[in-house]
UniProtKB/TrEMBL annotation:
SUPFAM superfamilies: YojJ-like. It catalyses: 2 ATP = 3',3'-c-di-AMP + 2 diphosphate. GO terms for molecular function: adenylate cyclase activity; ATP binding; diadenylate cyclase activity. Keywords: ATP-binding, Cell membrane, Membrane, Nucleotide-binding, Nucleotidyltransferase, Transferase, Transmembrane, Transmembrane helix. Belongs to the adenylate cyclase family. DacA/CdaA subfamily. This is Diadenylate cyclase. The chain crosses the membrane at residues 24-41, 48-66, 72-90. PROSITE patterns: DAC. The gene is dacA. Residues 91-255 form the DAC domain. Its EC number is 2.7.7.85. It comes from Cellulosilyticum lentocellum (strain ATCC 49066 / DSM 5427 / NCIMB 11756 / RHM5).
Length: 285
């Protein structure tokens, strides 16, 4: 073994470094901190941004290695400006993370994020959401139901009150009942459970949204513009049921169409997966 080690030491860049206990502890601490940051990012909308940043870094590495000077100039300047842009755009998320570290809640939340994402809504959950939507539409009870997809909505959940209850039409109707403590805000549904209620959603600043649509619809469009969430909206003014995805709104849904849209959110095996085309109406319709 010593002979092999001596031979490898003579080869440049292949020598064995002297690693002590301090170095091992140092590596483990850094690795754990990186894990904490990645786990926190993955549970928020920042995860999509993080993947975009990684793609930009890969492109920058390729441009540097192959001496693509024009591409390297563009990417390097974009990274410089993008760093400040990220700090400004995600200032609320960064502030919230620092506050959680100060209260010791960040580590607690990471320990409790072991839920395994399920394949999609069960038949019972779809039936319950459709039934509740029709009931609230009949009595003109305003509702805002957000269904989490690939993009995690952990940062949105934390703005509301944790429920973690099984999906039922009675629960949803009771939450949005007028003059009750939980009726104001959005409900987040994930892993076939009502995760949180009274959640605050970002409002869309699009000028194309019809003036006939109020704050509830603008909030639904806002969350769908930044994530892949599917949002069911029941109007308090006229009882019209709408569905929002990717910033597009489809209005005037009935029970059959609600169930069809909810079924489209189910995950399928890669070999069986079919492309679902969202044919929503424009924002001003």
């Amino acid at each position: 073994m010593d002979v092999i080690k001596e031979a490898l030491d003579k080869i440049p860049y292949l020598g064995f470094p002297n690693i002590g206990m301090r170095d091992i502890i140092d590596i483990l601490v850094v690795a754990y901190l990186i894990y904490i940051v990645l786990a926190w990012i993955k549970d928020t909308r920042t995860w999509a941004l993080f993947k975009g940043v990684m793609i930009v870094l890969v492109v920058a590495s390729v441009a540097y290695l192959f001496q693509l000077h024009t591409l390297w100039w563009v990417v390097s300047n974009a990274i410089t400006v993008g760093t400040f842009a990220i700090l400004v755009v995600f200032q609320p998320e960064l502030r919230r993370a620092l506050e959680q570290i100060g209260r010791g809640k960040l580590f607690e939340s990471l320990i409790n994020t072991s839920d395994q994402a399920e394949d999609g809504l069960t038949d019972e959950a779809i039936e319950a959401i459709a039934k509740a939507s029709l009931h609230m539409s009949k009595y003109k009870t305003g509702a805002l139901i957000v269904l989490e997809q690939e993009t995690r909505l952990g940062d949105v959940e934390r703005t509301g009150i944790r429920i973690d209850g099984l999906i039922s039409s009675q629960l949803l109707i009771n939450i949005f009942e007028k003059n009750t403590p939980l009726h104001d805000g959005a409900v987040i549904i994930k892993n076939n459970r009502v995760s949180a209620a009274t959640c605050f959603l970002p409002l869309s600043d699009s000028m194309e949204i019809s003036k006939d649509l109020g704050t509830r619809h603008r909030a639904a469009i806002g969350i769908s513009e930044g994530t892949d969430a599917l949002v069911i909206v029941v109007s308090e003014e006229n009882g019209i049921i709408s569905c929002v995805r990717n910033g597009k709104i489809k209005r005037g849904l009935d029970a059959e169409l609600i169930k069809k849209i909810l079924l489209s959110t189910r995950k399928k095996k890669r070999s069986e997966r079919k492309k679902v085309i969202w044919k929503g109406k424009s924002k001003n319709e």
